[in-house]
Amino acid sequence: MSLKKETYDVIILGAGVAGISAAVHSIGRGLRPLVIESTANIGGRARSFEDRVSGDIIDNGQHVMMGCYESFFHVLTKLGTMKRVKKQEFLSIPFYFPDGRRDLLHAKGIGNMHGPLGIALGFMKLSFLSWKEKRSLLYFAFRLKLGMCKPGSMTAMELLLSESQSKRIIDLVWTPVILATMNGKPEEVSAKIFITVLRLAFFGSGDASTLYIPQCGLSELFEPFQEWLEKQDGLLIQSNGIDRLHIVDDKIEGVYLQDGMYIESKQVISAIPPHSLVKVLPETSISLSYISQLNAIQYSPIISLYLWFDRPFPAIDIAAIMEASTQWVFQKTTKMRDGSSLLALTISAGNDIIHSSTEELAHACATEIRLCFPEMNDAQLLHWKVIKERMATVLIDPDTENARLNSTTPISGLFLAGDWTNTGLPATLESAALSGRLAASLL
Questions:
Q1: Distance (Å, rounded) from C-alpha 32 to C-alpha 35?
Q2: Burial of 360 (0-12, 13-18, 19+ CB in 10 A)
Q3: Residue 5: pLDDT band by 50, 70, 90 thresholds?
């Protein structure tokens, strides 16, 4: 069975954020896309599901956006789901330490001040930093703003040390930022991408640094996609993945699906992960060289935990956990019927603990929560769920950043999308959405 290419202008492989964005932008260019997703879900890693024990909807991993997520918000606006994301008025992050200390980064500034000045004033008010450390932070920010920091092929750690940032500042300020935005450790990740993150998020105008927190399961953000796509004369095929790409004389001719169907197309956007793309590329002289590049890509894990306690949690949406294994905690429910609470915790770049048992991780993090929040001292852990994404994101070290693949490929008509491609951004929802737009612009 085959589907003639005249029906659709482009085939998009994968209905994750990159694939959805590619479809949105293809339609924006007047093209009719056919989107093929191997699973029954859309959104890729940004999805939610029902916990079998509690019946609560939880995410495959907690995601938070920032005001600089222009490409991702464009997708949500098209799908009509931006209203399901809560926007902070100003960047506001409470900090909790296991020894009971608390602090607050509140970037409101003076007279509702937005942008970098508000963030600078927010850092100046942090009590866990000395005045000497604050001056050092400001001087580094000043040099970044003027473009005086030259990352070259350095890691973020090498850059920070070259800019006279102390170990304490790196541990308390820059490491949490790097882990949250790049899913890697300062000694691993590219300084070039680190600087890009700071410029976009913290030096951007207006609410670029403001946090946007989903108020629903992540799958709900993309739920309207199929209906929206069909109204635009596109089509989504689910639960039927790609068996192989059909390439003749280094030109894409179509795709074979796992059920045996063949679909002709002179244009294909691959929005699947690199390790999945390797499996569907035929062994030609060009693709073999390309496969070696894809196989060289390294990944970094993310551990997501959900903890159900028997009592209410303090009224906060998000908090940074300092000097602990737990890095971030989110309150998923504000008023549960039985007076209990559900928390989502994240641990980025968790290579050191990824092999620990799920029970050990859950109870260790529950202990850290009780230490950081004395109100929870006697709280009983009712239930827990641990999700280990061993290949959550590509690890963008200096070598990877210099070798990231562009949207174009040596195979005519085959284009790439995905947060791992050469977007100039870390592997985030925004990078994924931007990659879809870049690939669609080449059709």
A1: 10
A2: exposed
A3: very low
